[in-house]
């Protein structure tokens, strides 16, 4: 299996725990990864501190890029990053991607991934949805992106908030092409 060059962007939607669980799982999957780059918006840092009551994103041994660093390698298609995951993805960031407004590194990197026809996964989070959100989801889907809403499942009987978040994160890892051992309906029972 070819090792992945992957960008993870964390935005200011509710659900910092999804980003935390993803970063934990990517650390375990490091043998499948060539490069892992992480971007956080200012709101993402605020929401992380508010919801998780810590700054544990600083504990992950990953390369963080400033949200305005347009010199980052994945701001250009020639760097050949193959996958980008935005988790959680705010409606604001989704709207800017759908409109092609590449005014920060996250939206520029997403624009690049779409133009290079590579895999973009948006773990969109808000409820309820208005027609603008729904149209933006349609636009991004038509452009080749995958909308994977932050909607957990419960048939694996998760016991903790981390296990609930993992029901979404495992789907994301699967969509991103990682080989993961997670619950499959009708098969084994693990998180
Ligand atoms: C505690 C908190 C929770 C939020 N939850 C959401 C949410 O679930 N979805 C959303 O689209 N925006 C949410 N927002 C608003 C976004 O943070 C805001 O729209 C911001 O401009 C998004 O910017 P970013 O995409 O650059 O991070 C939340 C804000 C706060 C403070």
From TrEMBL:
<dbReference type="Pfam" id="PF02441">
    <property type="entry name" value="Flavoprotein"/>
</dbReference>
<comment type="similarity">
    <text>Belongs to the UbiX/PAD1 family.</text>
</comment>
<protein>
    <recommendedName>
        <fullName>Flavin prenyltransferase UbiX</fullName>
        <ecNumber>2.5.1.129</ecNumber>
    </recommendedName>
</protein>
<keyword id="KW-0288">FMN</keyword>
<comment type="function">
    <text>Flavin prenyltransferase that catalyzes the synthesis of the prenylated FMN cofactor (prenyl-FMN) for 4-hydroxy-3-polyprenylbenzoic acid decarboxylase UbiD. The prenyltransferase is metal-independent and links a dimethylallyl moiety from dimethylallyl monophosphate (DMAP) to the flavin N5 and C6 atoms of FMN.</text>
</comment>
<keyword id="KW-0285">Flavoprotein</keyword>
<feature type="binding site">
    <location>
        <position position="41"/>
    </location>
    <ligand>
        <name>FMN</name>
    </ligand>
</feature>
<feature type="binding site">
    <location>
        <position position="171"/>
    </location>
    <ligand>
        <name>dimethylallyl phosphate</name>
    </ligand>
</feature>
<feature type="binding site">
    <location>
        <begin position="90"/>
        <end position="93"/>
    </location>
    <ligand>
        <name>FMN</name>
    </ligand>
</feature>
<dbReference type="InterPro" id="IPR004507">
    <property type="entry name" value="UbiX-like"/>
</dbReference>
<feature type="binding site">
    <location>
        <position position="125"/>
    </location>
    <ligand>
        <name>FMN</name>
    </ligand>
</feature>
<keyword id="KW-0808">Transferase</keyword>
<feature type="domain" description="Flavoprotein">
    <location>
        <begin position="4"/>
        <end position="175"/>
    </location>
</feature>
<feature type="binding site">
    <location>
        <position position="155"/>
    </location>
    <ligand>
        <name>dimethylallyl phosphate</name>
    </ligand>
</feature>
<dbReference type="GO" id="GO:0106141">
    <property type="term" value="F:flavin prenyltransferase activity"/>
</dbReference>
<dbReference type="InterPro" id="IPR003382">
    <property type="entry name" value="Flavoprotein"/>
</dbReference>
<feature type="binding site">
    <location>
        <begin position="12"/>
        <end position="14"/>
    </location>
    <ligand>
        <name>FMN</name>
    </ligand>
</feature>
<keyword id="KW-0637">Prenyltransferase</keyword>
<dbReference type="InterPro" id="IPR036551">
    <property type="entry name" value="Flavin_trans-like"/>
</dbReference>
């Amino acid at each position: 299996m070819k090792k992945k060059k992957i960008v993870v962007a964390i935005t200011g939607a509710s659900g910092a725990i999804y980003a935390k669980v993803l970063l934990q799982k990517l650390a375990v999957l490091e043998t499948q990864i060539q490069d892992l780059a992480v971007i956080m918006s200012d709101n993402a840092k605020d929401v992380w501190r508010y919801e998780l009551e810590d700054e544990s994103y600083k504990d992950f041994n990953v390369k963080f890029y400033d949200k305005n660093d347009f010199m980052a390698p994945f701001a250009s298609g020639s760097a050949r990053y193959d996958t980008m995951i935005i988790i959680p993805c705010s409606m604001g960031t989704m709207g800017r991607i759908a409109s092609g407004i590449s005014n920060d590194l996250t939206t520029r990197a997403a624009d690049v991934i779409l133009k290079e026809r590579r895999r973009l996964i948006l773990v969109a989070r808000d409820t309820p949805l208005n027609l603008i959100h729904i149209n933006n989801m349609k636009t991004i889907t038509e452009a080749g992106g995958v909308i994977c809403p932050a909607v957990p499942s419960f048939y694996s009987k998760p016991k903790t908030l981390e296990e609930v978040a993992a029901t979404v994160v495992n789907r994301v890892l699967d969509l991103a092409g990682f080989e993961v051992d997670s619950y499959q309906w009708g098969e084994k029972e693990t998180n």
